[in-house]
Design brief:
Elements: H1 6-18, H2 21-28, H3 32-46, E1 51-54, E2 57-60, H4 62-86, E3 94-100, H5 102-119, E4 123-129, E5 143-146, E6 155-170, H6 171-177, E7 191-193, H7 198-206, E8 216-219, H8 223-231, E9 236-240, H9 241-244, E10 250-253, E11 259-268, H10 275-294
Parallel strand pairs: 3-4, 3-5, 7-8, 7-9
Antiparallel strand pairs: 1-2, 5-11, 6-9, 6-10, 6-11
Helix pairs in contact: 1-2, 1-3, 1-4, 2-3, 5-10
């Protein structure tokens, strides 16, 4: 029996993600009968039942759940093939997938990517906001911006520098509650911090300052939510210095507290000669170094 066409797995993945034949059809730009026919063909080829019908709609079977990660791998490979093909030739065009932390992706990258588009309008950007360590060797992304040194071989890495974090609060909060004079004073303030993220908790407990989890009155593992709550005047939290300096209303407290996280831009070494990826890589390095320098005006570009 011939192997099922990749298009059948593509439809299967869409049904799993979207939850219905009609939603999958809209996502793929096909008709519902076409998606239904694809599911019938795939079940016939594999000799398994993938979905059952209930009052709540389509329900995936155990077989479908077991196939899901393999279909996701096929899609990732197909996306990678498309990006690689679009990078052939001498034109700077095509798609580049970037992964970055939420704060970097929302607060730092937009002007960098806008400048990149002005110079190279035929480049398309896919941005994943994630604090997870995407596996560049599997090509989950083409380029990653991370706050830890790359540990994988076969990567091209450029060290940006240490991104400084300090403790900040909105001026309205400080006007109402006063500023802490030392770390003991933090017991009388609303603190914004981490919830359950194991890596952040390990970092927190490694600090020489008393910032235990149970003292946070607002907890979240999304760093963007920390920043939003600081801006709203909820309390005191950690913020990247380069971001806070843009907003006069954010004032630093306890300046003796400082946390530095190394930042890196990395990509797979196979993309070194890919003109599109190299162009984006170089633009990210230049833009991130400019951002790094904003933390301290006397810093020179390395």
């Amino acid at each position: 029996m011939a192997d099922p066409d990749w298009g059948l797995y593509r439809s299967f993945l869409a049904v799993m993600v979207e939850g219905s034949l009609s939603a999958a059809a809209r996502e793929l730009g096909l008709t519902q009968p076409t998606i239904g026919r694809h599911m019938d063909e795939l079940q016939h080829h594999l000799n398994v039942v993938l979905f059952t019908r209930s009052s709540g709609g389509l329900q995936p079977t155990d077989a479908a759940l077991n196939l899901l990660p393999h279909a996701e791998t096929l899609k990732a490979a197909a996306d990678m093939l498309s990006r690689a093909a679009s990078g052939l030739g001498d034109d700077v065009r095509g798609t580049v997938r970037i992964t970055a932390s939420d704060v970097i992706g929302v607060e730092v990258l937009p002007p960098i990517l806008t400048s990149l588009r002005n110079d190279h309008p035929d480049i398309e950007i896919e941005l994943t906001l994630s604090n997870r360590m995407e596996d560049l060797l599997r090509r989950d992304a083409d380029i990653a911006i991370r706050m830890v040194p790359p540990s994988q071989d076969a990567l091209v890495a450029k060290h940006i520098g240490a991104i400084d974090l300090g403790m900040y609060a909105h001026c309205d909060y400080l006007a109402q509650n006063g500023a802490p004079e030392d770390f003991e004073d933090l017991a009388d303030h609303a603190l914004i911090g981490v919830d359950r993220d194991a890596r952040d908790l390990r970092l927190l407990h490694s600090l020489p300052w008393p910032l235990a989890k149970h003292r946070f009155s607002f907890r979240s593992d999304q760093h963007l939510s920390h920043l939003a709550m600081i801006r709203a005047g909820y309390g005191i939290g950690m913020c990247q210095v380069g971001v806070a300096l843009r907003e006069p209303a954010l004032q630093r407290v306890l300046p003796e507290f400082s946390l530095a996280l190394d930042s890196w831009v990395t990509m797979h070494e196979d993309l070194r000669n890919n003109l599109r990826c190299r162009t984006v890589f170089d633009a990210l390095v230049t833009g991130m170094k400019t951002y790094w320098r904003t933390q301290k005006p006397d810093r020179q570009l390395a």
